[in-house]
Amino acid sequence: MSVIEEERVRGGVFKDINPEDEDQQPTVIESLCMNCYENGSTRLLFTKIPFFKEIIISSFTCPHCNWTNTEIQSAGRIQEQGVLYTLQVKTKEDMNREVVKSDSASTRIPQLDFEIPAFTQKGSLSTIEGLLDRAVAGLEQDQPIRKVCVLSVTV
Ligand SMILES: [Zn+2]
């Protein structure tokens, strides 16, 4: 498929994100809740963030246990070159800055020598604080099991 044809195909599905556009309704599919294994629903929205790229937003909600999960997947081609964005967090409000982070992006906080490597978090639309919360939750996951392992080694 040539580039022009591909653009035409993509243009049909991916439109600039616009809450006013009535045609931009999410596709809803019934899917299994990974928390309680009852049926919930996944809403898929194919959209395009201006000056960014085509993305698929999937939002899962379960009416049985109220579990929710929102993910963003990049639908565009992987860029040939990466981009470096630097944000100086100077005030508490800066923690509320919205960020779209793809799964192939890595996040670094040089002052803390802390890095969230690429492909360790799923893509998300979040805030700086949200990204850090996710990293903390990821690090805390399975900690009791790890502690048991350390104990069994030292005993
Ligand atoms: Zn559930």
UniProtKB/TrEMBL annotation:
Superkingdom to which the source organism belongs: Eukaryota
Keywords from the UniProt entry: Metal-binding, Zinc, Zinc-finger
Cellular compartments per GO CC: nucleus
Domain Zinc finger ZPR1-type: 31-155
Annotated Pfam families: jr-ZPR1, Zn_ribbon_ZPR1
Keyword match rRNA-binding: no
Gene3D superfamilies given in the database record: ZPR1, A/B domain, ZPR1, zinc finger domain
InterPro entries: Znf_ZPR1, ZPR1, ZPR1_A/B_dom, ZPR1_jr_dom, ZPR1_Znf1/2
KW Zinc-finger (keyword) present: yes
MF terms in GO: zinc ion binding
PANTHER family named in the record: ZINC FINGER PROTEIN ZPR1
Similarity field: Belongs to the ZPR1 family.
Name this protein carries in UniProt: Zinc finger ZPR1-type domain-containing protein
Species of the source: Sinocyclocheilus grahami
